[in-house]
From TrEMBL:
Annotated InterPro entries: Ester_Hydrolysis_Enzymes (IPR051532), SGNH_hydro (IPR013830), SGNH_hydro_sf (IPR036514)
SUPFAM superfamilies: SGNH hydrolase
Protein name as catalogued: SGNH hydrolase-type esterase domain-containing protein
Pfam families: Lipase_GDSL_2 (PF13472)
Span of domain SGNH hydrolase-type esterase: 6-174
């Protein structure tokens, strides 16, 4: 059975969504691919780099889906460090022989209703920076020939029912993400 680690922050973890309703669990059930969730709510790409050896490479999967960077923007008010960390994780993953996939997270839906630490974040400015970061992820992935799992491509995220709080996806949002990852994995997993 193919094993892929889903590695990232709360958007990977599935903040406040039951395990069976999370995108990776739905996709694993439908594809038969073992998708292991290693998302940590609140994590930055710095934190991801700190745990990638233990949680990804030591698990010896065939592949990794990397999705992170929003918290870097929220708390550091910049997208460039996230880009450098993603580049480093891609390089490390390739050096470890993994099939690498870069995921483009869903957009922020303003106004954000998320409250935990959110009073310190300017979500309107962050949303603009996140758009630049996501475009960088697309361009970078194309330049290094990495398959892109773009959660923005085929889903209309203007529907408020797809979010819990403007950042995190609802069970309905996770279902649409799962459908997208199923189609993506059927085309790309070797």
């Amino acid at each position: 059975m193919v094993k892929i680690i889903c590695f990232g922050d709360s958007l990977t973890f599935g903040y406040q969504v039951s395990r069976e309703e999370k995108w990776h669990a739905i996709a694993a059930k439908k594809t038969g691919i073992q998708l292991i969730n290693r998302g940590v709510s609140g994590d930055t790409t710095v934190g991801m780099r700190g745990r990638i050896q233990q949680q990804v490479f030591n698990a010896m999967p065939e592949g990794v889906i990397l999705m992170g960077g929003y918290n870097d923007v929220f708390f550091n008010r910049s997208w460039e460090p996230a880009a450098e960390n993603m580049r480093a994780m891609v390089d490390q993953s390739r050096a470890n022989g993994l099939q690498v996939f870069v995921a483009i997270p869903p957009p922020i839906q303003l106004p954000v209703a998320f409250k935990e630490g959110g009073e310190m974040v300017d979500f309107e400015k962050s949303a603009v920076m996140i758009e630049v970061y996501c475009q960088w992820l697309r361009d970078y992935s194309v330049s290094v020939r990495i398959p892109i799992l773009d959660y923005r491509a085929a889903i209309d995220w203007t529907n408020k029912d797809l979010y819990l709080d403007g950042i995190h996806q609802s069970p309905a949002g996770h279902l649409l993400m799962a459908e997208q990852v199923i189609a993506f994995l059927q085309k790309t997993v070797e």
